[in-house]
Amino acid sequence: MKVHLRKRKQTKSGSISLFLEIYKGTTTTPDGKVKNLRDYEYLNLYLIEKPKSPIDKQNNKDTLQLAESIKAKRELEIKNGLYGFANEFKQSTNFIDYFKDLTEKRLQSKGNYGNWNSALKHLIKFAGTKVSFKEIDENFCENFKSYLTDTAKKTSGQPLSSSSVSSYFNKFRACLKEAVKKKIILSNPAIDVSNPKVIENIREYLTLDELKAIVKVDCRYEVLKRAFLFSCLTGLRWSDINNLKWSELQNTNEGYRITFHQQKTKGLQYLDISEQARGYLGEEGNPNDRIFIGLKYSSYMNVELSKWMMRSGITKDITFHCARHTFAVLQLTLGTEIFTLSKLLGHSELKTTQIYAKIIDEKKREAVNKIPDINI
User: What DSSP designation does 159 have?
Assistant: First the structure.
């Protein structure tokens, strides 16, 4: 990449225009011809074609010096990747390796790392292990989005959910955004690519009667039963319950409270819990001990959760996260105001909590339609 100071005579005024010619290399046209790539920057600086007086000559000298200064500045900007295109070496960097590095930096956050790692695996399936930054354009981004939407599969062989597609594509977009910040590329090629649409899934939950039913039935893993019921009574996510320590539980004059950092958002959360919920924590241990020792996110615990539900007469597809849904729906059903529920769930935006209000509205519609025809 080179910058040349060029001159062009202005026929009408008789002055000489100064401009920069920026040579950017070559490209091959579809018919096989080599074409030079150049940019031009006109400086709005002019020389007097035939200077006669000392003043004219000095003016030309000063103008040329200014033009040379601008040229030197552009050369420095190009070297640092600030002027229209990034450093060629940086653009040749393997994007997949860069994505891996950003993924590894998220190891401390298991949930976030898991999403990044899954996105990386799908990216490799789509593009392989060697893709340079200069190969990634808007078309590449659109094709990756289409791959996630139409082709990618879970380990079970099922298509990805719309929320997973959106999550993985946003990790891809975030990686490109970080590359812009580090001046590897000058703009995010995915900036004009729309986010994959998330289709809102039916949120399964337990009714109060169903919750009472599972309390009476044994679960093979006692810690799983306690943790699930604790989530039903507090709305805590599995990740927060799994990491909960005795040091985070306080017994105040007003009752029990847990103070913790949410694993998902890292936000500090103060959550008052009922005496009933406290009962599922068990006997207090050492401050640094996990409360639910033995709780694991594993296939065999997920299978046992399903069996426990079936033994309780529940045929719904219940996962651990449904306990959080159960808490939310029960709270709204029992009259808790939605803003309060939003704080209890640790939501940063009220619109997230309003999803549960839709469930309650549906139940209200069902209720009014239960009255039989009074004209019969």
Answer: B
